[in-house]
Amino acid sequence: MREPIVLDGSRVAAEIKANLAGRVERLKELGIVPCLATILVGGDPASATYVKMKANACRRLGIESVRVELPETTTTEELLEAIGRLNEDPAVHGILLQHPVPGPIDERAAFDAIAIGKDVDGVTMLGFALNTFGAAAYPSCTPAAILTILDHYGIGIEGRHAVVVGRSPILGKPVSAMLLNRNATVTICHSKTTDLAEMVALGDIVVAAVGKPRFIQGEWIKPGAVVLDAGYNPGNVGDVDYEAACRNASAITPVPAGVGPVTISMLLKHTVEAAERAAGLR
Amino acid sequence: MREPIVLDGSRVAAEIKANLAGRVERLKELGIVPCLATILVGGDPASATYVKMKANACRRLGIESVRVELPETTTTEELLEAIGRLNEDPAVHGILLQHPVPGPIDERAAFDAIAIGKDVDGVTMLGFALNTFGAAAYPSCTPAAILTILDHYGIGIEGRHAVVVGRSPILGKPVSAMLLNRNATVTICHSKTTDLAEMVALGDIVVAAVGKPRFIQGEWIKPGAVVLDAGYNPGNVGDVDYEAACRNASAITPVPAGVGPVTISMLLKHTVEAAERAAGLR
Predict the structure, then answer these.
(1) Of the four listed, A37, B35, B45, B240, which is most buried by Cβ atoms within 10 Å?
(2) Closest Cα partner for A227 from A267, A259, A199?
(3) Is residue B111 a part of any domain in this protein?
């Protein structure tokens, strides 16, 4: 086999951000500064890092970020009130509630409290349903990143067989719906799938979204398949055994610098679009 | 091959209705009459027949049915007002808006105006999302019927490969989600699927939901597979070539008297459950 095309997420993200930079400038000329509010509840260091990364990415693009930090002891009611205030604030265009919140909080209720017009991270039930019906303004960011990478590299989706490994509410389920809406035949696999190797081997497009390091074996990949690895495990390791998969794949996302950077750029894009809608530009 | 087990929807429906009859009695002893409101907009004869069938099925079980009939010229606003009145009416436990409504009406807005607690037909966006996340009180009736038939006959779902042909919002998409939530590996096929025959041949469980008479060929069915035919085409013909499929299937729903009668019993069951919730019994 030839070497696969490496689907360079850093390059895709850079192009998206270059496009967004111009749009942020236009908004500022109209007196509007796009603004993402991030909510961090409790002191989980990984979550704190993620929120900081997102806020930094905003700042570099000229998007304002409002950081709301709430204590570990926050109640569901208090969190809902904080979200309600951000919903009402016309200066805030997008709201991101960092997952996971501390155990006692009703995370689903908190996600669903985010106004649909500000749900730039695609976490509400309504946003999920709209996305499944092909009508969401802001799909979940990682699924959107996966589709964006395919489109960027001109990889066809219609009529191809996409095999998605994983069925989480913000990744496996919505990416399956989005691939289906783009006319792929879609198979969804998970921990209870028997013969996972055989299933993965059916895929023209394989999306790995399981959260287990190097779980998808290289020999499972059909020769010529396109592999998108949405995993991000400790030690910068994806869900796919990258080196082995390269022997079969025609194109593959690396980890890091694959799906991850495009995911963040989707969050930025949705925030800019929300600001453009508020400005009547969309 | 041996003859397949015929999955007798009429018998399944009869058992469900026998169970519901006792529950309706108990509700009446508490002074509560379960009530389904049906809304028919315009004069489409097939729609009128469907609504009448559903109302008759209610009556036979002691469930009250309120029939709202609106003229062809009804506006979206007028329909939303009618739905709003039924939402507010404590005597109404379930609301069914007969699909399709006349073209100028925003059907999606009308469906989504139904209060989630009265969405016994499972047509709202929120109900769809809840169902996809395994938390819906009232899933769409045909998908619920398919699962009920499988369970009634003790046919295992977990770890099996289910192939769903069709991706409509009230059938293909929700039944895929329900099979996935029951730990099937799920493949969703549709009009843009290449090699449909090969895909169907992978299925341990095949769900036909395309609306094309005898579209699924018997020789596509893997020997021993279970076939559920949700099609109902003119002339009482399903989406599966029944006679030919019988040569391969281990179990199959006929048309008529397969999925259809169980679908109506799901509507009745959801209405009774909504009344039980109103009575504080659930």
Answers:
(1) B240
(2) A259
(3) yes
- Tell me whether B167 touches chain A (CB under 8 Å): yes
Whether residue A19 is contained in a domain is answered as: no
Q: What is the pLDDT of residue B105?
A: 97
In whole angstroms, what is the distance from residue B128 CA to residue B122 CA?
A: 7
Q: Is the CB of B173 inside 8 Å of chain A's CB atoms?
A: yes
- Which of the four pLDDT bands, split at 50, 70 and 90, describes residue A2? confident
| Residue B2: per-residue pLDDT | 79
User: Which domain does A78 fall in, by range?
Assistant: 31-117
Is 0.90 exceeded by the ipTM?
yes
- DSSP letter at A247 equals T
The model's pTM is: 0.96
- Reported as a single tens digit per residue, the pLDDT across B191-209 is 999 999 999 999 999 999 9
- The verdict on whether omega for the bond into residue A254 sits within 30 degrees of 0, i.e. cis, is no
Chain B partners within 8 Å of A169 (Cβ): 133
Higher pLDDT, A106 or B2: A106
Q: Are A135 and A154 in contact (CB under 8 A)?
A: no
Cβ separation of B194 and A125 shorter than 8 Å? no
Same domain? For A109 and A177 the reply is no
| B128 neighbors B143 (Cβ within 8 angstroms) | no
Q: Give the count of domains, chain A.
A: 2
Contact call for residues B88 and B57 (beta carbons, < 8 A):
no
